[in-house]
Specification:
binds fe (iii) ion, mainly alpha, 5 helices
Length: 167
């Protein structure tokens, strides 16, 4: 019979794998973006994401475990779509709005996972792990809202102008 700690550790291995895949994918988003502010956001989130990998290793350590990754098919699907959307909108003024749309799907996947993992860590009376996970969660939420702001302030309008052909 499996217990909550088994479920927690399996799910931790899933998001650990996802973060590693995102470290590989984010440089492609930096290159695909043509809005300078968006490039900066992706670059700084790449640095944060490398930090997420390290902090998840701390969470494994807090549970006396070696870091373990478990192939996450969902993140592969999301990243595949990000690359497809980037290719479809290349050299178009829609590119930055499209990249934000695609990247926010990854952020929401992470936010969903970390919200539950934080709660499970608390249930397991491991406040140290819960606190580390919450720090990661806060960074995911912050970048998500920064992306929303940039879309609303600049990128959606740029994409709309491109469609109508009028300023
Ligand atoms: Fe992350
Ligand atoms: Fe993220």
């Amino acid at each position: 019979m499996r217990n909550l700690e088994d479920l927690f550790l399996d799910s931790l291995a899933d998001i650990y794998y996802a973060e590693q895949q995102l470290v590989k994918a984010l440089p492609r988003l930096v290159r695909a973006a043509t809005n300078g502010r968006l490039q900066e956001i992706f670059e700084s989130h790449l640095t944060e994401t490398e930090g997420h990998v390290r902090r998840l290793e701390e969470v494994f350590a807090v549970f006396d475990q070696e870091p373990k990754s478990k192939k996450c098919r969902a993140i592969h699907g999301i990243i595949e779509e990000v690359d497809e959307i980037a290719a479809d909108n290349k050299k178009s003024p829609t590119i930055n709005a499209a990249l934000i749309y695609a990247a926010q799907k990854a952020e929401h996947y992470e936010i969903a996972a970390y919200g539950t993992l934080r709660d499970w860590a608390r249930m397991l009376d491991n406040d140290r792990a819960a606190d580390i996970i919450e720090e990661i969660l806060d960074e995911e939420k912050a970048v998500d809202s920064t992306l929303t702001d940039l879309a609303e302030e600049e990128c959606n309008q740029a994409a709309k102008v491109a469609v109508s052909g009028e300023p």
